[in-house]
Amino acid sequence: MSFPRGPDHAIHPYAPQPLRPDFRWPGGKSVAAYLLLHVEHTEIAPSEGTHRDPRFRGAFFTGTPDWHTYSYRDYGNRIGAWRILDLLDALKLPASVAVNTLAARRHPELVAACAARGFEPVAHGISASRMVTSRMSEVEERAHVEAARDELGKIWPGATGWLGQDHGATARTTRLLAESGFAYSLDWANDDEPYLHASGLLALPPPAEWDDVQTLWLRRVPVTRWPGLVRDALDVLLAEKRGGRVLGIGIHPWMLGAPHRLRYLRESLLDLALREGLHVATAGELAAHARAALHSA
After folding, report:
1. How far apart are alpha carbons 212 and 190 in whole angstroms?
2. How many Å apart are CA 131 and CA 174, to the nearest integer?
3. In this structure, is the dihedral angle defined by the CA atoms of residues 7, 8, 12 and 14, taken in order, positive or negative?
4. Comparison of pLDDT for 56 and 139, the residue scoring more
5. Which residues in 39-66 are b (16+ Cβ under 10 Å) and which e?
6. DSSP 25
7. Pair 235, 54: CB distance under 8 Å
8. What is the dihedral of CA 232, 237, 238, 241, to 10 degrees?
9. CA 20 to 30 Å from 213, out of 71, 80, 127, 291?
10. How far, in Å, CA of 210 to CA of 165, rounded?
11. Using the 8-state DSSP alphabet, how is residue 79 labeled?
């Protein structure tokens, strides 16, 4: 009995690493990194019929209205984000900003501060309490994507990429994103290199293991290990001969912007800023370069 090779879906073709073209980032560098700052609003009482990440339960969820979750996220926008912006200024590092539309409406001062620094917006849905799920019809999912695109475009134009809230997606999401004009997404953690979906949407490796909430909050890895996780990843990627590698670092202001965690973010970003052979840019810049490289190969 024979089995099909690779994925059990048609979202993208089977493409193991040795069969793909090798390319370099600007300056001939083999590894690129981007920082993904999250600006999110969580609703105290989400609209009926919306869905939130089921992993946020127990000690991280107090029911509806959910004052506990709301207050944590609100801390990030009120306090933590400003600490992180100061740190990025000191290290002269660019950032992409995953921003949902409710946060963009409620925090114009934070959006303005990020835009003034030349940071890049990444569309991040409507709110942190509204995931894309297979419970949606295609019409509902398309409306969700287009509403997030259009509303953010009015407030902070320029988003060419999409990050699904908690990586929520369906089998049709990559197609709908491409049809809605997005060039790339940050939802597929199955590679160290960018690749193209069948829809033409580029998959840029997301932070995944280097997202602070995923690692420190949900998996309960001690924050003291954070700099080592980033350092170890960079050591391996930079030592490998193959190019086109990407390391994304996900930063939630309510998490790494807290006073007792900031030192660990500073340590990891200082190491990143001093690395030779590493190209640091926004996610959109990396996606555009990768698309051109893949098409020319």
Report:
1. 18
2. 15
3. positive
4. 139
5. bbbbbeebeeeebbbeebeeeeeeeeeb
6. B
7. no
8. 150
9. 291
10. 16
11. I
Nearest CA-CA partner of 187 in 214, 210, 172, 166: 166
Give the tokens for residue 106. 């409620």
**Angle formed by the axes of helices 262-274 and 81-91, nearest 10°:** 20
Structure tokens that stand for 64 in this block = 């509806």
**Beta-strand pair 202-203/195-196:** antiparallel
Side chain identity at residue 19, one-letter code: L
pTM of the predicted model over 0.85: yes
The number of C-alpha atoms within 13 Å of 120 and in the hemisphere containing its C-beta is 20
pLDDT digits (tens, 9 = 90+) for 188-225: 999 999 999 999 999 999 998 999 998 998 889 999 99
Residue type, 151: E
Q: DSSP alpha helices (H): ranges in the chain?
A: 67-75, 81-91, 101-106, 108-116, 138-155, 173-179, 212, 226-239, 262-274, 283-296
Sign of the CA dihedral with 204 first, then 206, 210, and 212 last: positive
Tokens of 35: 């920082």
Residue that the structure tokens 């100061």 belong to: 86
Residue labelled with tokens 């902070």: 156
For residues 85-109, give the mean pLDDT.
97
Short-list 25, 56, 48, CA closest to 252? 56
Kindly state the DSSP code that residue 49 receives in the 8-state scheme: T
Neighbouring residues of 262: CB distance < 8 A, sequence distance ≥ 6: 83, 84, 87, 256
